[in-house]
């Protein structure tokens, strides 16, 4: 691939550098809304697909070619690095990760192993290397953040309230800290391996950390996130942090050494900037709007883009991931609209 053919708009936006238009990519942009993906999944379980670098690369690349987005995100799951360290996890359709051996004690934390990426998940690095040869846009690597991983580990699967997770955090402070330390090491090791293999940006998904109030975040989570992002910073790749229903934590996030903060649809871009968040903003179109009439989709996208472009440093994305009921053509049309509306003459 010639250097001239590489579209680095997303990377420049991450660094608050001038861009010719607002870059766009979508969380969960490879997934069940795509007929091609559903066909591939008929042949492979999730983890089988993930462990096949050629197929994983195909699934990662497909939405870039199909939608015209400005970045690819590696097809994997936040559970991918947990399987090799002793977590009995399966991805159940319509449910998500389900764990047969949840963490309920310090002993359960101690039985978890340490991740060796080259031994445990070599297929992830191989997928990244293949993609770097094939893609003309940047590749985003990712991992789950310790709180979000811990919530699955402790609850045994998805939760609506995280009661068990918070109870463990409050009642077992030593075990909680041991779990945070272990998951922090895993996250840094896993992400550095992705960067070494060729990932050009990193997103850390703290999907469920919005369940915590700001005081608990400062006490139990901020130190571990500070450690993770500080360890990744020397790599030089842009670092993105995202969570759902976490607008009340933006001041805490602004203290972290990250480059980009991802917003969900509950917090406006203007509100984030009014609260002196000085990071690049990514987001925050409500995924549900993709089922609305096009006139409403366009009007809402225009409003978000106007907010985003009011200051340098903005990347268009959803406030959470694409979901199965979305029509591929709608996402294609939205991508084209973002590019055309924001293109500089």
Give the termini separation: 28 Å
Radius of gyration (Å) = 19 Å
Number of helices: 15
Contiguous runs where pLDDT drops below 50 for at least 5 residues: none
- How is the largest sheet built, in terms of strand order? 1-4-5-6-7-8-9
Could you write a compact summary of the structure shown?
It contains 15 helices and nine strands. By secondary structure, it is of the alpha/beta class. Strands 1-4-5-6-7-8-9 form a seven-stranded parallel sheet. Strands 2-3 form a two-stranded antiparallel sheet.
Secondary structure layout:
Layout: H1 9-14, H2 35-41, H3 46-50, H4 53-67, E1 72-73, E2 89-92, E3 96-99, H5 106-111, H6 117-120, H7 122-134, E4 139-144, H8 146-155, H9 163-171, H10 173-197, E5 201-205, H11 214-232, E6 239-242, H12 250-254, E7 260-262, H13 269-274, E8 280-285, H14 294-308, E9 314-318, H15 328-342
Parallel strand pairs: 1-4, 4-5, 5-6, 6-7, 7-8, 8-9
Antiparallel strand pairs: 2-3
Kindly describe this structure.
The chain is an alpha/beta fold and 345 residues long. Helix content is 46%, strand content 11%. The chain has 15 helices and nine strands. The strands form two sheets. The protein has a seven-stranded parallel beta sheet with strand order 1-4-5-6-7-8-9. α14 packs across α15.
Provide the descriptors you would attach to this structure in a database record:
single chain, 345 residues, alpha/beta, seven-stranded parallel beta sheet, 15 helices, 46% helix, 11% strand, globular
